[in-house]
């Protein structure tokens, strides 16, 4: 197969260079190499792009949010092709990039359960999978991953909306469906822009009286 791929190489959708592919034929190794852990400055309670967040000095939100890297065209394209275009096999590509970092975070914080942003029923039927769940299942055993929150109504894609619209779009859209009392919960998401999705998930999870609520985001 690799021999044939060498004869008929793929064209990278980002840089348009030809490359010999193995697991996926969309992104070359050079572009993938840009997806790596970065030290970025943000509030580790709410995720805002400030180090000394004044509102979180008064009242913390998450016990801690960990962010893998800053958002750029490379990670945006990879997630777009998996999430919107339906290239499920990219879950392995993404998981390999974040595995060491997220597993270290889970061990350090002694996480009991990892959950993720749910899809409404119509969107799930259309996509046939939740990209966040697929990424997690490439990294962790199934017993630590659980969809404890359901999305009760359709909403517009957050990427299509401005800050004010994003805040309204998801308000009241989530419902807690499982017992999480006393557990240390990690909420997983791909890209944080305004933080509205993570905050709505936080508020929903908080109702279940967990011991701790953490967040992990691939890009900010």
TrEMBL record:
Gene3D superfamilies per the UniProt record, alphabetical: 3.40.50.2020
Domain Phosphoribosyltransferase span(s) in chain numbering: 166-217
A Pfam match: Pribosyltran
Cited SUPFAM superfamilies: PRTase-like, YfgJ-like
PANTHER family associated with the record: DNA UTILIZATION PROTEIN YHGH
Stated family: Belongs to the ComF/GntX family.
Protein name from the UniProt record: ComF family protein
Annotated organism of origin: Persephonella hydrogeniphila
